[in-house]
Amino acid sequence: MEKAIETMSSPRSAGKAEPRKATLARTGNEAMAEAMRQINPDVCAAYPITPATEIVQIFANFVNDGLVKTEFITVESEHSAMSACIGSASSGARTMTATSSQGLALMYEMLYIAAGYRLPIVMAEVNRALSSPINIHCDHSDTMGGRDSGWIQIFSENAQEAYDNLIQAVRIAEHPDVLLPAWASTDGFIISHGMENFELYPDDAVRQFIGEYKPAFTLLDNRKPFTLGAADLQDFYFEHRRSAYEGMRAAKKVILEIGREFGDKFGTAYGFFEGVHLDDAEVVMVALGSTAGTGRVAVENLRQRGIKAGLLKLRVFRPFPAEELVQALAHVPAIAIMDRSDSFNAQAGPLATEIKAALYDAGQYPKIINYIYGLGGRDIHFRELEQILEQTLKAGKPNDLNSRVVYWGVRE
Amino acid sequence: MDKMIEIRWHGRGGQGAKTAALLLGEAAIRTGKYVQAFPEYGPERMGAPVQSFDRISDKPITLHCSVTNPEVVVVLDASLMECVDVTAGLSEEGVLLVNTSRSPDEIRQRLNWQGQKLYTVDASAIAMDTIKKNVPNTPMMGALLKATNLMDFESMLEDTKHKMEKKFKDRPGIVEGNMAAIRRAYEEVKI
Q1: Domain residue spans in chain A?
Q2: Is B46 near chain A, with CB under 8 Å?
Q3: Calculated CA dihedral for residues B70, B17, A380, A301, nearest 10 degrees
Q4: Is there a smaller number of Cβ atoms within 10 Å at the N or the C end of chain A?
Q5: B3 shares contact with chain A (CB less than 8 Å)
Q6: Selecting from 3.40.50.970, 2.170.120.30, 3.10.450.710, 3.20.20.70, what CATH number does the domain A12-266 have?
Q7: Chain A residues with CB-CB distance to B66 below 8 A
Q8: Partner residue facing B64 (CB), from A24, A197, A290
């Protein structure tokens, strides 16, 4: 277990030399906009979309009020927003954007190009269902759609984590061993529009943490000319794609280093995931985003009734921390994997598919039930999460599709 | 406060149910509490029934599901009682506060809710007197603090004044009107 613990966060752990923080009331969107203000990117190109609109709107006010030196580019679509970001990042500018749902979908073509060019663009993303039918509420269909695009993907439980993750994303993306774009996401409306206690770190402490961006290559540096965006056919395309994979593998080490450094500086260390009562758990729920917060309450309630329940909150989805996850789950006989999106592969949601593959490689075959839940923002109550954990504990080993994948709360 | 308190606000679009939840939440954070404040997002239209929520606790709050069993329900518009089940999930130990000129007994009969802690206040009339506009949300915050023991009344008043002064920099009359409204509702609430 030692190594597994090393890869986990120590929630609200006491760090060394914490700078003075201000306790404020902020929504997830306001928190992400504050992070962008403190990051003070050279360029931001963005297009508004519910529920991420406020991030850009608040940031545009910061630009207007002279609180940042950012060149703000208004564009006519998200495809153009990401295209402008790619141009800007290619010229060596620290570049950010924000979007959600259909906006992310419209960027799809450019997401792969940003990753292929190895550009450390950072995005504030707000998870929202994809059309159709049209729906503005939370699920993870949008970001799961980008899971093979080469972007680093970090999920946030609450407004504080959204802020903390966005700040760390800058360091992770820009690390010379990584050089990949990254997004930090929150759950639409649940977090983006919910106001909570929020600790704002001092501007200079954040600026010191992220440091100055010194790109190794920029198109504007005529002493080091290079080609970007050329045709790359059978001869070298494969090697270039493989190099992006190397960046993603290297990101695993970098994410842990930066998560620890963040803890030393600001008081909360971050890992790939966080465990709650994992050590002696007989049933564990694996969840992403805000559901993990609700899951904490469900787990505590079950513990009070003598049921050995646990929670694994996955923070980093790309790169996928397969080895560390299977180690943390090695002793757990029953697992409920919570997917807030469907992959339509007709066998499991995206999170379950990844975890099952990792367990197979490790030779671990626990009882797993995959729950597809909360699509289009349907509420998931802590009592339901208690039921899910109890049901997973009691169930026999699933032997067909209907017992392996449960569409929780759907009307049949 | 041993237990987390959940509050549900019922209003109509434009009456400030969301603003009230946020102002109350911010004031509670200033007094050292942990808070969540959030509206229910649906099709937002002037006059349509809307809800908003607060969770207030001495400990960090990690729940991110809907509020189904509030300890406190605040009704900003009495006509909502005709079309919305305002006491849904509210136990008879809970607190119900209604903006109406009627007495608590009349409301108790009409809703068939047997709890003892039923309060009424004519927040609309107070708002018309003090703010010169039917915006019952801020006076209802005053009444709420009389009906519950959520936080110190003067601290809430001070924090809300501070927030409004920022928002209405050029219209100090609005701030004074709201402060008077909150204080009057605090004093006039009936049980």
Answers
A1: 12-266, 273-407
A2: no
A3: -30
A4: C
A5: no
A6: 3.40.50.970
A7: 379, 381
A8: A290
